[in-house]
User: What shape does this take?
Amino acid sequence: MKLVRQFMSACALCLWATLPAHAEISVPITHLIVEEPAPPVLSNLDPIPGDLGEAGAHVALKDNATTGRFMGHNYTLDVARVPEGDDPLATARSALANAPFLLIDAPADVVTAIADLPEAAGKLLFNVGSEDPALRSDACRANLLHTAPSLSMRTDALVQFFVKKRWSDIVMIRGQNPKDLAYAAAMERSLAKFRLDLAASKDWGFDADMRRNAAQEVPLFTQEFGDYDALVVADEIHDFGRYILYNTWEARPVTGSEGLTAVTWAPVVEQWGAAQLQSRFEEHAERPMRPEDYAAWTAIRAIGEAVTRAGSGDPATLRAFMLSDDFELAGFKGRPLTFRQWNGQLRQPIPLVHARALVANAPLEGFLHQRTELDTLGLDEPESQCTAFAN
Amino acid sequence: MKSLPILTALLLTTAPVLADEIWISNEKDDTLSVIDIETMEVVRTIEVGERPRGITFSKDYSVLYICASDSDTVQVMDPETGKILHELPSGEDPEQFVLHPDNRHLYIANEDDAITTVVDTETRTVVAQIDVGIEPEGMAVSPDGKIAITTSETTNMAHWIDTETQRLFANTLVDSRPRHAEFVKDGTELWVSAEIGGTISVFDVATQTEKAKISFEVANVHPDRVQPVGFEFTAGDTHAYVALGPSNHVAVVNAETYEVEDYILVGRRVWHMDFNADRSQVFTTNGVSGDVTVIDVASRKPIKTIKVGRFPWGAAFRPTN
Assistant: This one.
């Protein structure tokens, strides 16, 4: 404690010495989490952490606070959980009354409803949960940035890998949860974008317990596909996908929601200093960092980076700065992360991983773009129907 | 197979008459590779602690200090025998360090702990711990020994430490992910590289204000991949050789005009470097390709690639005469 106090006084001096232009800035942030009941799945092998997303926000807050100590900037974080059945808009209203920065982890319709609240005008909102491509297109909002990836960014990343490997003949098994269907739709768009064929698609309709039956059922189920190069499993709720691997009729790679997956973060990501973020996170949360944590982490770090560079706590000023060419965030992915000026989506490399290692990092070499290769992932400017960012 | 012991014996007996050396730390092999500058071959491979990164010799070259990051210690080695003499308390996860001109105090960046640890190498005790930004890495001490610098990768600052009081007296922002710092021109300038920002900031030491910013542009490489990390200066501080990470190039910067004069192709993800005795050659560590590129300073051309261990990181020159 003594050390800390000495340090604080030394720092107070340094502030006067080197940063006379900087006034004290307070940056209150709320992390709004709308709790959804987890759909039933066959296996309970992977418990969902109670602090999913939230833990990433806390680690980022600590990162910001360290810079803040030297700059006289004070970051605070409130986590507001909305239990199932409660009104998220009421919670959002009171959060926005107290803090101009709001992270939202909620379904897409709730996200847009919050962004449309009168209280949200002039505030800065971050979508850290929904991967719905519509939020980056016709359902975009000017006061809403996205640090969660769109589904399209993830499926584009995988399809680039298919192209690179010359896996041109793709088949898909589609789960029936709305999240599975959304993933399958995004995958079909990505395949078309990169000119690959979806040779066949089958819906998963079993209600048998695959923990016992997979070896009997899956070979027969996949036999009808005939020959193909890779099998995409659309099972975003992770219900049946794990039982497909090694049970297909043909010995072919499984990808999509299982097997080779495209995610923004995984425990196997260790390059570019990522090991440091992993260990900071594990120390805090006592579990590996997940994509949901990374989305919340990048949102709060983006706020911190903008406050540090722009020297302001005003949401309009910070929004303008984040969307400008001057903003860049170090996100442990080997290149700076920036926001797309046409829909507020955070650009980022997407790791392609399996449980034990990183396989590749999208955008893959050879996928070119006139602006940045990162824009080969997700909705590019001509593809997005978003007009809210036009001026 | 029979000739192997004889060969080893030969190597051992000839070791004392070898030429000057470049020592390389291999981050993913837990070894050091010793390169003979004359033959440009690895003549010794020495096992050390886990994840060796920063390495530096004492001023008289009698001992080598090694940041064994994952062993949470600084090892002290006798370079003649390759034996670890003892270990120094270093704080957690030491990544990079600098030896004070008094040849006694090590300033160590504790990457996982947001702390700079000052260790007295004679009494083998921690003299001070200074709170700095997140992920401290770059370390430098001014030639007069009065100022130590720590750069913090996530806080994006250079922290100025008064070595008298071991307290911070200034904190200056730099671009994203600062990696390396050096005092130049008799300590009147401080250079700090920013990996993600893609720049080097030049500070006037007297006022701690930025007087220049150097950016880099490598033909046919996206600016995002041009990432300045380690750098060293030629004789008389006239030019800086700057490792540009995954762009696989080293830049030659005129230290007077701050203009980039050349880009030299080296191995993949170039990290750090050191010069030979007369500074006519520079040896760069190429992390991803696992080798060292030798650059001829006069012609600014790479002249040789030397295979070392996995993920070479640090480089340190050792004269043997």
Summary: The longest strand of chain A covers residues 25-34.
